[in-house]
Design goal:
It is built from 13 helices and no strands. The protein has one domain. The two termini are about 15 Å apart. It is mostly helical. The protein is globular.
């Protein structure tokens, strides 16, 4: 990369982390506004799908060129926006958000292991593993006060939730390996459409959507999550993953909980304790160690 392209990369990567870190806060506000989880996710993806397709059509973005590319993009949509999001939303009533962050924060570890076998250019190293483990320990430290109060009767939900980062890791690897010929905007449009379909069907089957009367809080949280949390971030993500390793992109799963904690402190006056500060430092060190490989 040239100096300018590196600066652009770091800027866009930071932007993803900041926006996805803020979505934790926005999802929390939406939940407090009594919006059922699957319905909220489906409406988020529905709005994003409509807007992305309008933009793609306006810009005349080409569709995937062949069946192989189509298959890869649909698989990414099913894994990431369908199964992974569905698991996260479905287990959210049973798993504390802090523990959820720790479990989903294992995504870079699974990506590193999968990339070692699937991507010739991304071999597993001891330094990479050390950095990832430091990041996961950092997240666990941040949310330790929540984790020690975990209800053991919901261990099944934690096990199910562990599937989400594994599935997301597989999605990142497929994206890196098999969608290089697909424009990021079109990749975003199709994968978001697949997610909308899966989450929409789930919402219709599981939640009393007929009784929902959207209020202001629900409308703005859905809009924020659709436009910034889906269109902008996934668009940048799909672009950057073509330029860097799949593992580097999945470090976002470790960084975003740290940002979420500090935003909660700044905006919602949530407590910022020594666990949060110490854990955040471990996350920063872990990511720094991994990126020095």
């Amino acid at each position: 990369m040239t100096k300018d392209s590196k600066l652009e990369f770091y800027f866009l990567y930071t932007l993803i982390c900041l926006i996805w870190g803020s979505t934790w806060l926005v999802i929390h506000i939406g939940a407090n506004a009594a919006l059922p989880p699957f319905t909220g996710a489906a409406l988020r993806f529905l709005l994003a799908t409509v807007l992305i397709w309008l933009f793609a059509i306006f810009r005349k973005i080409p569709l995937p060129a062949d069946r192989k590319a189509w298959g890869a993009v649909i698989i990414v949509g099913i894994l990431s926006n369908g199964i992974s999001f569905g698991i996260v939303y479905g287990t959210s009533p049973y798993v504390p958000s802090g523990l959820g962050a720790v479990i989903f924060g294992t995504m870079p570890l699974w990506t590193a292991i999968g990339s070692h076998w699937a991507l010739q250019s991304e071999k597993l190293t001891a330094v990479k593993i050390l950095g990832i483990l430091l990041g996961i320990i950092g997240i666990a430290t941040i949310f330790y006060p929540q984790i020690e109060k975990v209800d053991s009767t919901h261990l099944w939900a934690m096990g199910v939730l562990l599937i989400a980062p594994i599935v997301s890791a597989a999605s990142a690897i497929v994206t890196k390996r098999s969608t290089q010929s697909v424009a990021p905007i079109m990749l975003n449009a199709i994968t978001t459409s697949v997610g909308c379909l899966i989450l929409g069907i789930t919402a219709l089957m599981r939640e009393p959507w007929q009784d929902i009367s959207l209020n202001f809080a629900q409308v703005w949280t859905i809009s924020y999550l659709a436009i910034l949390g889906t269109i902008v971030t996934f668009g940048i993500y799909f672009r950057l993953i073509k330029e860097t390793s799949a593992v580097t992109m999945t470090y976002v799963a470790i960084v975003t909980p740290v940002i979420a904690v500090f935003l909660g402190w700044l905006i919602l006056n949530e407590r910022l304790d020594y666990y949060a500060l110490g854990g955040s430092a471990l996350v920063v060190v872990g990511v720094g160690v991994s990126l020095r490989m």
